């Protein structure tokens, strides 16, 4: 394998076009080698600026790359990612990992069997400001509770008008993995969903229990006309109050940091990471537990 990893991109939507493709092409350790999407013309529009090939099928893409990056709906990702892992390809995975826990378990199992590196695109976890806060929280300890509020108008925007899975599954599936991951990382592993409510217009409010005794609340919506977007996480306890507010690192910055980590993992033979596929499986199980708690009362 060359020092520069050949990356195949599955998907050609806004995130693939604006973050994945330029990020992979600009990083010194990766090269955008191929793009596949269901619409060949969309794949060509992403591939051509970077001199990448357009693959006719996902399997065609797998035959020419070292790493597969995904920017597709979870059901599509789960199917192709399992095949890619079993073919020995390293993975950059979108959230949620899959549509169901069973699908997520199959992807995680394929990754474990093949011993490849597989990182989740949990964007803010790769930001320096997030890493600094989590390091401080873990050093101090004694946190008893927390709250996260994620409010946006993404489902009202034209950009996501054709994103069927986002409209069908709403904020829980789209921003839920990000928010739950941060809350879990800050306060300890989420062990139980104590309550869950979703309004008719898609506002989620969830009460969680964490290993060690802390509890937290999460409020999420992608259907509120909120400008600018609200992304707030707070924790409180024996050492007072800490907050992670609006992001200062861009999505491109965070994706570059993910690529830094992935390239280092591949070249060192490391397969464990705080945001690896096992993290994606854990979050998939939490999402399922939230839906199950909601269904108890409907």
Automatic annotation (TrEMBL):
The keyword Cell membrane does not apply. Residues 159-240 form the GFO/IDH/MocA-like oxidoreductase domain. Pfam families: GFO_IDH_MocA (PF01408), GFO_IDH_MocA_C3 (PF22725). It comes from Goodfellowiella coeruleoviolacea. InterPro entries: Gfo/Idh/MocA-like_OxRdtase_N, Gfo/Idh/MocA_oxidrdct_glycsds, GFO_IDH_MocA-like_dom, NAD(P)-bd_dom_sf. This is Dehydrogenase. Keywords: Oxidoreductase. GO terms for molecular function: nucleotide binding; oxidoreductase activity. Residues 5-117 form the Gfo/Idh/MocA-like oxidoreductase N-terminal domain.
């Amino acid at each position: 394998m060359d020092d520069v990893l050949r990356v195949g991109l599955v998907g050609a939507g806004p995130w693939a076009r604006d973050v994945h493709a330029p990020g992979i092409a600009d990083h010194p350790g990766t090269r955008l080698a191929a793009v596949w999407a269901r619409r060949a013309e969309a794949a060509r529009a992403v591939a051509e600026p970077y001199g990448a090939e357009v693959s006719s099928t996902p399997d065609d893409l797998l035959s020419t790359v070292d790493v597969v990056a995904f920017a597709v709906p979870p059901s599509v990702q789960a199917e192709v990612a399992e095949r890619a892992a079993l073919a020995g390809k390293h993975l950059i995975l979108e959230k949620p990992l899959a549509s169901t826990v069973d699908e997520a378990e199959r992807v995680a199992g394929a990754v474990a069997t093949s011993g490849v590196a597989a990182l989740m695109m949990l964007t803010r976890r790769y930001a320096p400001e997030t890493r600094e806060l989590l390091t401080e929280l873990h050093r101090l300890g004694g946190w008893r509770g927390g709250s996260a509020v994620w409010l946006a108008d993404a489902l009202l925007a034209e950009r996501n008008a054709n994103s069927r899975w986002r409209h069908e599954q709403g904020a829980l599936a789209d921003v839920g993995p990000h928010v739950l991951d941060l809350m879990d990382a800050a306060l300890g592993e989420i062990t139980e969903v104590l309550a869950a409510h979703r309004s008719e217009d898609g506002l989620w409010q969830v009460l969680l229990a964490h290993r060690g005794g802390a509890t937290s609340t999460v409020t999420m919506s992608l259907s509120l006309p909120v400008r600018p977007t609200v992304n707030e996480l707070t924790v409180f306890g024996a050492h007072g109050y800490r907050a992670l507010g609006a992001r200062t690192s861009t999505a491109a910055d965070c994706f570059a940091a993910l690529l830094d980590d992935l390239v280092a993992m591949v070249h060192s033979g490391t397969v464990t990471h705080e945001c690896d596929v096992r993290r994606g499986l854990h979050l998939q199980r939490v999402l399922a537990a939230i839906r199950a708690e909601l269904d108890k009362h409907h």
